[in-house]
Give the backbone structure.
Amino acid sequence: MRKALRIIVTFGILLVGNTIFGQEFIFNIHEKNISEIRQIEDSLGSEKIPNESYYSMSEIQPISFRRKEKNIPDLIVQYEYKKDSTLKEIWYEWDVYNFDKKSNNRQSLEFQKALIEKYLSIKSTISEKFGASIEDKGDLSKLDLINDKGGLKKSDLWKPNDSTEIEMYTVLSNYYEKKGMVTSNPTHRIRLFVKNTKKIEKETPKLDKKRIDSLQMLSKNFLRTLSQNELVKSKEYLSDLIKQSVTDEQLNILIENLDFDRAIELVYSGIQAGLDGSIFAMLQFKYKNDVSNPPNELIKIIFDNKNKVVGIQPIKLQGKATD
């Protein structure tokens, strides 16, 4: 009975070990979200660390973790993700410089061999899952190149499907040179990238007559709340993108630039692209008693795909209008 129990416990430990090993690298980037990633890193005993760089072009900053390693630099893994929590890119890096930034940081041959072994092991794992690398460059067997200026280099690329790309490279060099202000330091690095290359086709708003009529009605109702100085009701027409940031002061300035005593009519409807590629529906109104061609004044109202206002702009054209 005791022997049977020992077998069950041993099997359980092996099962857990295999599960953790399988989570070491995430290749099915489309099937994971950031919540699952946090759980995986917790199960691996990773330490969450701050990002050293700020991604100014991204609203959502990546999250990074540190994993302990033996005989090679600790692994830094970084996850870049979207608003909906799906992953954009995973970045794995083993680099001496992350933890020891001194100059002329040469490493032993045994250390270099450990990094080479790690690279080849990862390559073997990826190739077993997705086939041979489609761009296999470099040769890690020429160890004498480690002391040369270019160092020992190797890179590989896989494209498992039309929306995933896996890229890996290593640079191993003990070369050190200092000439004036320029210093060439030794490099001991492996990087592995898993990229979500899926192109999202953005749906273009349909501006058929039914939607245009609906947006016209929304525009007039929105303007009516402004004319009555009902700011709380006015904000109900706003998109979530701007509702939290628009102030009463801004709405009051807008009100001052609109003439609510004059009736308006639609003169143009179309599509407008945002700076980030987002697509919006746009209506332009003029005052009915403005018979100039083009009109002296316009009111442009922009809507998102949920028919919420993301922008309103009173426009006063400069110069003399011609009939």
